[in-house]
TrEMBL record:
Compositionally biased intervals (Basic residues): 108-133
Protein name: C-X-C motif chemokine 9-like
GO cellular component: extracellular space
Positions of the Chemokine interleukin-8-like domain: 32-92
InterPro entries: Chemokine_IL8-like_dom, Interleukin_8-like_sf
Pfam families attached to this UniProt entry: IL8
Residue segments, region Disordered: 108-140
Protein's UniProt keywords contain Repeat: no
Keyword Methyltransferase: no
């Protein structure tokens, strides 16, 4: 029995159709363990140079937060559920929405002074003539 040319063409077309359909459907399937950051840190110390955030995708079910350190150009993955990761994601989204530079998110606010300086600032903010010691001695 000789294979008919018409039957061979139909079989080849059907095979090609099945292969293309399988390839197209497999691109959107979640494959666990394909994230850029398999391990994350909750926080980081030091100056930050660059911030990159990748949203959830077909290959990774988590938001990926990657920060580059200034001192040694090391890329560090941050936990998106940690407070600092959430803060960077919020800042990133705000910067993208407003069209600002993302590097503004990398500048950290520093606390100024210690306990003694804060006490001095509080005393300077009180109105003059209303000293605690003076008020307590007047009432006695």
């Amino acid at each position: 029995m000789k294979p008919n040319l018409h039957v061979v063409c139909q079989f080849a077309f059907l095979s090609l159709y099945c292969i293309l359909t399988a390839v197209r459907e497999s691109e959107g399937v979640y494959v666990p363990g394909r994230c850029l950051c398999p391990q994350t840190q909750s926080g980081i110390r030091g100056q930050l140079k660059e911030l990159t955030i990748y949203p959830k995708s077909a290959t990774c079910s988590n938001v990926t937060v990657i920060v580059t350190l200034t001192r040694n150009n090391t890329a560090v993955c941050l936990d998106p559920k940690a407070p600092f990761g959430k803060q960077l994601i919020r800042c990133w989204n705000r910067a993208m929405k407003m069209g600002r530079d993302v590097k503004l998110c990398l500048k950290r606010r520093r606390r100024r002074g210690g306990r003694r300086q804060r006490q001095q600032q509080r005393q300077q903010q009180r109105p003059r003539g209303h000293n605690r010691r003076a008020l307590s001695s007047d009432s006695q």
